[in-house]
Specification:
Blueprint lengths: L17 H10 L4 E7 L15 H14 L5 E8 L16 E4 L3 E4 L4 E4 L4 H12 L3 H18 L4 E2 L20 H17 L2 E5 L1 H4 L10 H9 L4 E4 L12 H10 L4 E6 L2 E6 L1
Parallel strand pairs: 1-2, 2-3, 3-6, 6-7, 7-8
Antiparallel strand pairs: 4-5, 9-10
Helix pairs in contact: 4-5
Bound molecules: zinc ion (2 copies).
Amino acid sequence: MFTTYHTHSHFCDGSMAPEDYILSAIRKKFPAIGISSHAPVHFETCWTMKPGKLKQYMQTVLGLKEKYRGQIQVYVGLETDFYPGVVDYRGYPGLDYTIGSVHFIYHAAGQRYMALDGTPEEFQETRDVVFHGEARELVEKYYQLLTDMLYQQAPSILGHLDILKKNNSGNRFFNESESWYRKAVEGVLDAITEQQVIVEVNTGGIARGYTSEMYPSDWILACMRERNIPLVLNSDAHHPDKIDAYYLQAVEKLKSLGYTHQRILLDNIWQDVPL
Ligand SMILES: [Zn+2]
Ligand SMILES: [Zn+2]
């Protein structure tokens, strides 16, 4: 039973209309799909929803929920960010869930928002400008922001937990097997456990050619399994054809790590279903 609650349409940086994702999901016999544009932020970006579009977004997806009732369950989500002064979208009328992600950091001295998961050049710029060239400090700050978000504004789903590895193939910027890295991740897992948040297994990095592994990495998934942290399989699709990209490989991997279930939103309830 495949679903995805992480999809980007032309309301943000995705390539087609929400309805195209729903039609693709019906063709692929999904029981449910969630639409989840990047929520509006305080500053200019080319990848988040424009603030004036939120009402139209909600109306559009709520309309589609009605239109396709009986064929597929459509849920309305937002992928939200976390930064000083962020709007809390949880509880927004009609919204079914949020995916909490950290994509950038506020650089107070320069009064700029700087990318954490952009291009390798952007990563390097953030490292150099905000952290004086220290990648470890950047990475630790990222995981601290995730932890703060979990305690201050716990989302329904935690988005792409170790997204920083996107630019780190061959340990180009930092070494993911060092103890400080594992400690930083374990701090996030503690917060996830306490706040009872679902972690997404995100195949978008592989589908878009950024990573060879899913987010999170296998060793993190193994730690999550020990802690009984629930997970949901998400594709972070930016095109309707990609809504189940690498799902078969993902399920195989999860089963090899001892997982038997995922937690999905079905009949308006988050429930465990077999993988
Ligand atoms: Zn994201
Ligand atoms: Zn996304």
